Amino acid sequence: IVHKLIKLQIHFVLLISRQGKVRLTKWYSPYSQKERSKVIRELSGIVLNRGPKLCNFVEWRGHRVVYRRYAGLYFCMCIDEADNELEVLDIIHHFVEILDRYFGSVCELDLIFNFHKAYYILDEVLIAGEFQESSKRTIIRLLSTHDSMVEMAKEEATSIGNMIAQVTK
Amino acid sequence: MALSGMRGLSVFISDVRNCQNKEQERLRVDKELGNVRTRFKNEKGLSPYEKKKYVWKMLYIYMLGYDVDFGHMEAVSLISAPKYPEKQVGYIVTACLLNENHDFLRLAINTVRNDIIGRNETFQCLALTLVGNIGGREFAESLAADVQKLLISSSCRPLVRKKAALCLLRLYRKNPDVVNVDGWADRMAQLLDERDLGVLTSSMSLLVALVSNNHEAYWSCLPKCVKTLERLARNQDIPQEYTYYGIPSPWLQVKTMRALQYFPTVEDPNTRRSLFEVLQRILMGTDVVKNVNKNNASHAVLFEALALVMHLDAEKEMMSQCVALLGKFIAVREPNIRYLGLENMTRMLMVTDVQDIIKRHQAQIITSLKDPDISIRRRALDLLYGMCDVSNAKDIVEELLQYLSSADFAMREELSLKAAILAEKFAPDLSWYVDVILQLIDKAGDFVSDDIWFRVVQFVTNNEDLQSYAAAKAREYLNKPAIHETMVKVSAYILGEYGHLLARRPGYSPKELFTIIHEKHPTVSTSTIPILLSSYAKILMHTQPPEPELQNQIWTIFNKYESCIDVEIQQRAAEYFALSRKGASLMDILAEMPKFPERQSALIRKAEDAEVDTAEQSAIKLRAQQQMSTALVVTDQRPPNGMPAQPSIGPLSLVKVPSETVDSQNPGDQGLTHPNGVVYKEDPQPPSQDIIGDLLGTLSIEGPPGAVAQSPQSATYEAEGAPSAADAAALVPVGEESGSVQPIGNINERFYALCLKDSGVLYEDPNIQIGIKAEWRAHQGRLVLFLGNKNTASLGSVQALILPPTHLKMELSLVPETIPPRAQVQCPLEVMNLRPSRDVAVLDFSYKFGPTMVNVKLRLPAVLNKFLQPITVSPEEFFPQWRSLSGPPLKLQEVVCI
Questions:
Q1: For the segment B424-463, what is each residue's pLDDT rounded down to a tens digit?
Q2: Considering the entire predicted model, what is its pTM?
Q3: Got the DSSP string for B247-307?
Q4: Chain A residues with beta carbon closer than 8 angstroms to that of B122
Q5: Which residues of chain A does B241 touch, with a Cβ-Cβ cutoff of 8 Å?
Q6: Pairing with B265, which of A147, B565, B631, B857 sits 20 to 30 Å away (CA)?
């Protein structure tokens, strides 16, 4: 599956629950839907069955998968063999800390119902599978700006709607 | 609990979560897809809010793994919405739903370009992110120049520029020919002076990509990289928010050192000195601390520094410092550090002069081969393989062989290959080499390719003083009841050729050699029969004067195979038969095989080819060793992780009885399927009771929680195999003194149950419980009897006798005479099936408890069905065979109406 990949830091990001349910996926290398399912199946088989006190790396199809478990959720990122595993482990934790700050004590349910937000948070951490920003504060500030833009647009829409409603009364 | 802010979406997600099984989920998803599709068809009526909601639903469904083959247009069209909320959804969903190969993406190029060159920086960010994540060639062609402009524009804010840098990085990596980077060296040098650390980090990643392609052009960036590293690692001159657990952006430090590894060397003495000062500080100033996150971060930097030191070929003193550091790491408790310690030691082997220092850690590395973590075991294996030479080959290879018996299935192939290569490369003497390969075949026959046993035959043929030794060894292995087919091949070959050298020893007469080889005949596949036939012909030739009885036996076999469907076998049988009647001329034709011309080992050649392919760039040079070793494993397309290759549900599945000779399957193919069937489980862990706890519990930032539930297998196993103290107490009747001991449960039912499963209780009474656990592979099986004493007193005079029927060959390991109180002993039992039969083996078991002697006869569940295996036959393979058969009794056909 991975033979055609060009050099990238992170080929994909997977969030899988302890029960093997997919919570978030992001693919930076082109995989077909069929290949994606296969990757998820294989990796959950490997990662979920690992014991608690082992290292955070598994070797898979000539690649390294760096993973870490937070409560019932496994965060996995796939990288090349020659890449720096601990650096990627730091990225995972950095991402989790940002989620935690954004949602306020994040839990799995937050991510299930707000998977779309998780996507745009991830876009602030990684682009093209490369690490983007090490300042949590910068990212949080940006995210709240975006959120307020969405809110403003909503209010605007409502007030315009009201105006139209009044005019056409 | 936060909801999505869109009611319809939340309801749908809840519905999916509440589905009890995959089927329900599929129904719910199909219903939703139908709904969305209908809504999209009447697009006129959709409000922006609804449109957003539906594309989110589509993305959610797609993320769960379902195919979503419509609605791409709607997602893409949201990109051109004028307002931020819709546009944002359009961009994010498109980037997930489509990839660079989708045609639909072309429709978006113009809109994306307008957003990139427009004035709205939020839109610029969205557009750059999309292109960075999925942009393909056409995006590169029409957008690269604009993205470059943004990156160096002085009017753009950092949040746009850092995204532009990574976007450009992707476009350049994917299409280096399209993106024009002439004259970019100066620009990059300027970017490295950037004060904003977000922009600097992204630019550093871009630099890594540029330098890896053409380091010549970017010399001017080298001193800047060193400055950046000094600024971070030495001066810690960095805003607080850019530190991570007190460490100045570990990511930027790592990337800077990565970029430096692409320059072949650092020539300027001042720069070199500054660089080494910083590196020295990183290497010596990093301690293992309690906080796991801080550890991870500081060691991420440290290991990158190590890589850079190795690359720069530092002075010997610094190198020994590094090895000493790694030696410390491979013994620490923290598993991540152990893993990386081993990995970096392997890389270190490429540096001259340090091998001897690394060898001092051999004992610790061998310990790591037994680490509970398979990832660490793999690294240890790679390292042992890399550090092996003539001086330590014997020790290392013997360790590998010893480990082979207990190694995970997933690692056996790699292990055997590596042991075989090392044995050949560094054998101190040839008899040791023969020993190693035969042990290898014995312990992991499925993973020993033909190359390996061909090679051992070549060595034996070319070395006269090895021949009688090899023959004696081969004879020894044939004594074992169950041996791998490859062992049959190699032993038959060697004994046919050189068995006569030992004719004077007891047990080596031609008749005896023939008998012991022919005993294996019923169990082998078509690929082995020709070797057996040649071996018989040779034995016949060496029998001087001829023994009529042996002659007749062998002729009967030749006769039988003269009409074999396999051409190779048929021809050999016919020719040997005719030749063996010609007396003296047989001697000439079947004379000893001539020596093989010296040639390079196919195995080693394979390994070396792989090495050449991967040695490309200087920075990658260091990794070559490691890539070489994994490349070896790739010789076969089997998945490396122990998953079964494919479930064998072909168009035609036949049931294969092992003794039939229709088997065309390569014995190696059976390798990774678990001996007794299913390995892969849909849901690796049963849903636990605390799902809700998981969902609501915070993701515990401080560190992963402790123990997880015990694996289900081991739990059931204990329940069935070993009696617990409580059981025993409840079951031993008070005051039972004499008289018969009654079995608990129905012995017959237990037997029938075990005919269908592979572990369970075979027999139980108040004193003892006999559990059984079995593994089957083709015609062989391995059972383990678990004899558990339930009492607080010993059981004495324990005896177990196997009464095998004629078609089974069985060997029970030693059963101790007493079983201590509350103890369980395990007795392995090897089984080999010689031909199909319904007879059953019986275990005659007796023991003495106090004055009572108990004797039971138990049927053993080594029944016919255990030796059956499904095989897959494609129509192309099946029909030619079917057609070549002539009518009854070989061919029967019946049409059944249902």
A1: 888 888 889 999 999 999 988 888 888 888 888 988 998 8
A2: 0.70
A3: EE-HHHHHHHHHHHTTSS----HHHHHHHHHHHHHHHHS----S-HHHHHHHHHHHHHHHH
A4: 146, 149
A5: 135-138
A6: B631
